[in-house]
Structure formats: structure tokens, C-alpha cells
Amino acid sequence: MVIVSPAVEATPLALRMTIVNWRGGVYLGLARRLASFGLRAAALHADRTQQQRTQAVEGFRGGHYTVLVATDVAARGLDIDGITHVVNFEVPGSRETYVHRVGRTGRAAATGTALTLVAPEEQRALQALQRSFGPELQG
Is the dihedral of CA 42, 46, 49, 50 positive or negative? Predict the structure, then answer.
């Protein structure tokens, strides 16, 4: 379940990015589900055509979409200023992947918020990630 605060959506310049992995094709309906809550969301993944991917990125960059749901692979190399929030729909598998994902909010000395959703079966992965960062990563 995804719960989104209307106050966050009301912020006109706030751009958010949700990153998911392939596991079970979870991303397929997430953008549609978010749109059903009134959020302007687009999906970015390898199964989309290049034209669809370009439209999603440019729509997000230009403010038409406020949420971009992306897989790790599709999100690599994106350079979009103004991303205020990154929501990891699952625990990243490595420190490098975590840094890559949450770094989307820190472009050009900007600050932002990163949130990682953790399922009970991901507790060990979360603990391993926390150990790799030491006290830098808050739970």
C-alpha cells in the first residue's frame, strides 16, 4: 500500500522519484496506482519504448509529472535537478545502489528526503546496508 500526503502533492515545485526493482514486476502498476490517488505519475523501465521513456523523463523534468516510478537500470544516468524525495520501494542490494538512488536528491548541494520501505523479509538486507554505512545511516 502506498499512502501519500496531500500536503506533499500541494507543493508546486516538489519533484519526487520512486525507485523500484524488477522483483515480481511491482513497478508495472505502481504509477497507475499513484495516479488513481491523484498524483501525476509516470513509469520508467526497460519494457517501455524509447519514445515512452523520453516522454516520461521530459514530463517529469518539465513538471507535468510529479512522481517518476523507475527501475534501478532505467534511473541510471538521469540528471534531473530539483528532486526532493526518493522513495525506495524495497531495500537496495548494495551500498553503491543505495547511494546512487538517494543521491538523486542531493544535486548541486540541494537537500532532500530519502525513504526506504522495508518488508519483514528484508530486515537482514537493511541491517547489512546499515552496517556498511556505520552511524551515517539512520533507521
Answer: positive
Mean pLDDT score across all residues of the chain: 76
Cell of residue 54, nine digits: 523520453
Please give, one letter per residue, the 3-state secondary structure of the chain.
CCCCCHHHHCCCCCEEEEEECCHHHCHHHHHHHHHHCCCCEEEECCCCCHHHHHHHHHHHHCCCCCEEEEEHHHHCCCCCCCEEEEEECCCCCCHHHHHHHHHHHCHHHCCCEEEECCCHHHHHHHHHHHHHHHHHCCC
Dmax (CA) for the chain in angstroms is 43
Give the model confidence (pLDDT) of 43-85 as tens digits. 888 788 889 989 988 998 888 888 888 887 666 777 777 777 8
Domains of the chain and CATH, by start: 12-136 (3.40.50.300)
pTM: 0.75
Q: Is the pLDDT assigned to residue 124 strictly greater than 60?
A: yes
